[in-house]
Design a protein that fits this description.
The protein has two domains: 172 residues, NAD(P)-binding Rossmann-like Domain (Rossmann fold, 3-Layer(aba) Sandwich), CATH 3.40.50; 107 residues, Orthogonal Bundle (6-phosphogluconate dehydrogenase C-terminal fold), CATH 1.10.3660.10. A six-stranded parallel beta sheet has the order 3-2-1-4-5-6, with helices on both faces. Strands 7-8-9 form a three-stranded mixed beta sheet, with helices on one face. With 290 residues, the chain is an alpha/beta fold. The longest helix is centred in the last third of the chain and has 32 residues. Helix 3 runs parallel beside helix 4. The relative contact order is 0.11. The two termini are 31 Å apart. Strand 2, helix 2 and strand 3 form a beta-alpha-beta unit. The chain has ten helices and nine strands.
Length: 290
């Protein structure tokens, strides 16, 4: 398949959108890459970094001639965007995304878009602590998993095009049902973010309860940095992810609470062998990570 687009419009030129734009331009996969965003400063930086060729702050102006549109904004904004400009897309246009939740979101998007506009859900599992186009790089997706979430409505040619795009970015492709995607990613991605956010807030609370005169973080080492790296993530983005995957995440937080209670009980009972077993169990599971 000859993978080439006339115009790719990226709605939301941040870390993911900017990195994808760089790849499109460097590999000449599109004649033109157009960015859409709210911040003029960010969009001008995206042009300077050669992530996009041109930009618009009004998304309706960026849809003319687009044969691929990438949604790279917080997932809560998808419906508002598509209701605003979805009807302007030409028949055959592909719309895809980079969102961390699928499930109900894919069904909603498919229900909003015109019948002859083709949607393919995608989720590149790559990122950094930093956000914004200034952190973009064309190597961001190399070796990373990218999940596509086709449904019975997904056009096969459009799916092949999106898979080809992410393969060109260096991603390893996986296909999952949208709802299964949310259960798995809720466990291995969304729950760890809850843990990191909650841990940092707990430490702040403990420091304040101790009077707040001493900066406890000044005494931290690599363990705290490694455990809470993802707590530096975007509040806006993760607010939306948590709410869209709410039901899965509530069940997983309950399971996490059970494990915390387990450790609490082992400490209360001064159960050294039990603690050692629980820690060894976690260590062995950790060793299974790729």
């Amino acid at each position: 398949m000859d993978l080439h687009f006339k115009q790719v419009t990226i709605v939301g030129v941040g870390l993911i959108g900017g990195s994808l734009g760089m790849i499109l331009k460097q590999q000449e996969l599109a004649d033109r890459v157009v960015g859409v965003g709210r911040s003029l400063e960010n969009l001008e930086l995206a042009v300077k970094l050669e992530a996009i060729d041109e930009f618009y702050q009004d998304p309706k102006s960026a849809m003319k001639d687009a044969d691929l549109v990438i949604l790279a904004t917080p997932v809560e904004s998808y419906a508002l965007h598509l209701q605003e400009w979805g009807h302007l897309l030409e028949p055959g246009t592909i719309v895809s995304d980079v969102g961390s939740v699928k499930g109900k979101l894919v069904a909603e998007v498919e229900g909003i878009l015109p019948e002859q506009v083709r949607f393919v859900g995608a989720h590149p599992i790559a990122g950094k602590e930093q956000s914004g186009v200034g952190a973009s790089c064309p190597d961001l997706f190399k070796g990373a998993v990218c999940i596509v979430t086709p449904t019975s409505q997904t056009d096969e040619d459009a799916l092949s095009s999106i898979e080809g795009l992410w393969k060109a970015a260096g991603s390893v492709m996986v296909s999952l049902d949208p709802f299964l995607h949310d259960r798995i990613l809720g466990a291995v991605s969304h729950l760890p973010h809850v843990v990191a956010f909650a841990l940092m807030n707990t430490l702040l609370e403990l420091q304040e309860d101790a009077g707040g005169s001493q900066n406890w973080f000044a005494y931290s080492g690599g363990g705290l940095r490694d455990t809470t790296r993802i707590a530096a993530s975007s509040p806006e983005m993760w607010r939306d992810i948590f709410l869209w995957n709410r039901e899965n995440l509530l069940r997983m937080i309950e399971a996490l609470g059970g494990q915390l209670n387990r450790f609490q009980k082992l400490l209360e009972d001064q159960d050294g062998p039990g603690l050692e077993h629980a820690i060894a169990q976690a260590r062995d599971a950790r060793r299974q990570l790729p």
